[in-house]
Amino acid sequence: MRRSKATIATLLTAIALLAISVAPAAAAQPNAAAKARAEHQRIVDYWTAERISGAQPRDFVRSPNGTFQPKAKPVGGGGGGGGGTVTGASWTGGGPVVQRTGKVLFTMGGSNYVCSATVVQEPTARSTHSLVLTAGHCAYDEVARAFATNWTFVPSFDTSPTFTCASATIGCWTAVGLVVHSGYANAGGFNTQATIHDFAIAIVAGGGKTGNTTQLDSAVGGGYGIAYPSISTGGSVHAFGYPAAGRYKGKDLTYCAGPTFNDANNGNATWGIACNMTGGSSGGPWLAGFTQAGAGTLTSLNSYGYSGLSNMYGPKFNADTQNVVNAAASRTGNYIVP
Known about the structure:
Layout: H1 5-46, H2 49-54, E1 56-57, E2 60-62, E3 68-70, E4 86-90, H3 96-100, E5 101-108, E6 111-120, E7 130-134, E8 140-141, E9 146-147, E10 149-155, E11 172-181, H4 182-185, H5 192-196, E12 200-208, H6 216-220, E13 225-226, E14 236-241, E15 254-259, E16 261-262, E17 270-274, E18 285-288, E19 297-301, E20 304-306, E21 311-315, H7 319-328, E22 335-337
């Protein structure tokens, strides 16, 4: 059967349009993966030796007049105590906490900072992304109201204290998104409202030693679960972090252990524990029911201190915390939970 030239031309045009519409969809996934790898490498390249050495702890202490001050001088204190209470000692017990807890580098307001963080269980497991818990002030600028950039996590830092991804024990992971609660984002400064909501989740994708698609969960043998709400007053916790100020050098996984108490000066809205960890430990995990074998449930994190007191304070995990974790579980970008 003969077809007119016009019919054939129309058919060819339709086929061409179909090919054009299918091609971008087929190419979208590889392009997205390539962009993700490029962004990961950009962040890795950003952290030169000079920038790393200049990164400062982003920690807060409350002064006698009741205001929070950044980068305050660290308080003094002894090492591990007796009677089941440890106020600051090197963790030598090994176990999964070493792999799951690490150091964080990030940029905020044109300055580079360092904090601590730990891997957490995802509410719904994904094969491509993992979640990392840290302090809100290690992910979001509460004054400028802007997310941190160049956010990088190095787990198991204690076993090979370097930020060079290829030399680190497990490598490094960069954030594709950061999630905080509006209670923190809208605090207008580091104040009582901020301390109550001082938690954040970093969403990380590919990483490892070479920046490939290695999943962080698999690399560290899984993450810790989180309790909502957290423990009762007097419950015992182990707090971990990488303090980098005062007598601490930031290369050693340090811990405190003992009972929690309410911070009466903060309206009993946050937890306290006897602990002399200094700047750089912010974002480090508090674990209830902790064992060296890997048991433990996240109940809080290192958030702030008081000038002249060898205590550490942290938020009480609740429904707001759970909403942040749940929001992060389904996203791949920055987000403020309303």
